[in-house]
What does this fold into?
Amino acid sequence: MENGRYGSMGLLLTFMAGCVVGGTAGLLYAPQSGTRTRRRIADFAEDVRDKAEDVTEQATEKFQKATEQATEKFQKATEQATEKFQKAVERGRNLVNV
It folds into this structure.
């Protein structure tokens, strides 16, 4: 399902960016020691990286699938057009030979 100009992928990326900003702001303003806060930021960054890798992998798979489907449709359309052209040529030859 498309959502506006950029579709669901844009919505997902916007959501993830909001998570990063919100999570980082929350960690920075939390009343904890610097060492613990830095550790939490590092853990949070690792989680975000893992999620970004998952999103990238999913996007790559979807792109590959869409490319394969488009290629198959193009090949089928080309075959159909070739068949129709050959039939038209044959009809034209039959008209000339009558």
In short: DSSP finds two helices and no strands in the chain.
